[in-house]
Amino acid sequence: xxxxxxxxxxxxxxxxxxxxxxxxxxxxxxxxxxxxxxxxxxxxxxxxxxxxxxxxxxxxxxxxxxxxxxxxxxxxxxxxxxxxxxxxxxxxxxxxxxxxxxxxxxxxxxxxxxxxxxxxxxxxxxxxxxxxxxxxxxxxxxxxxxxxxxxxxxxxxxxxxxxxxxxxxxxxxxx
Length: 175
Hints:
It comes from Janthinobacterium fluminis. The protein is mainly alpha-helical and about 180 residues long. Helix content is about 60%, strand content about 0%. The protein has one domain. It is built from seven helices and two strands, in the order αααααββαα. A hairpin with a 4-residue loop joins β1 and β2. α1 packs antiparallel against α2 and α2 runs parallel beside α5.
């Protein structure tokens, strides 16, 4: 599993992605308030698969279900993401739900590279790239690059991505 700090950082990136996609779908509401709500929900969703396992009703705050089982199930998070996205144009509640699901999916993507893996469909699957808590910088950087690309596409029609690509092509090593 990625560290708690990595899940928080990738949750913020998921919030940016969610807010941009909600605005792109035309469901941002007056003064983009609904987009902001989807951003906040994305930040909360970035850590949700872990805190949903806690027994909040007990004093000990122990896990009420085994770690990385139901709350980390990929099909459920992807289904919630698709359902909320399809409901965006017509339902107010869909935007925060979409943000929350974006955060949950980002959490699963951050947990996927380590040996414990994530139960995407039936069993756990792992990319087996590194042990838990290591290489968090790679995960966080990938999340924020994705957030930047999505925001650039939605708000600036890929202007910054095209300029960055032109800069890389102009480098001497790429000639």
